[in-house]
Amino acid sequence: MIRRLVVPALLLLAGCATTPPPGGTAPPPARPPRQHEAGLERVLGRTAAQLVELFGEADLDLHEGGARKLQFVGPACVLDAYLASPHAGAEPVVTYVDARLPDGDDIDRASCVAALSRRAAAK
Q1: What local confidence, expressed as pLDDT, does residue 89 receive?
Q2: What CATH number has the domain spanning 38-123?
Q3: First and final C-alpha spacing in the chain
Q4: Which residues contact 2 (CB under 8 A, 6 or more apart)?
Q5: What is the pLDDT of residues 70-95, one digit of tens each?
Q6: Would the pTM count as exceeding 0.85?
Q7: What is the mean pLDDT of residues 23-47?
Q8: CA-closest candidate to residue 49, choices 63, 73, 70, 67
Q9: Where does the UniProt annotation place the signal sequence (predicted)?
Q10: Domain residues of the chain, as ranges?
């Protein structure tokens, strides 16, 4: 019974295989998305205290289990920084950031970091 299911499934998968173009080499595999965009090094790996120093007090501070979310709101954008401990007993650091315009549309995360940093420096 299992053979009747496995053999057709393998044949279907084999039909999906690609071959390199004739006379050339196969194209390089697609690059994975870049986790560290230029400009995000200012926040990724930083502690909550370092974020407050960079942006000022957080507008929202949520704790859930061992994770934490700090939200910074400015006229140009909203930045959510997600913090987690890299290992047991370590201070939580930023592992991911998300950004959006005040109306909810997407914005480049690094641009939002720059805008919020300039705003905090002007205060």
Answers
A1: 86
A2: 3.30.1450
A3: 72
A4: none
A5: 999 999 999 999 999 988 888 999 99
A6: no
A7: 64
A8: 70
A9: 1-19
A10: 38-123
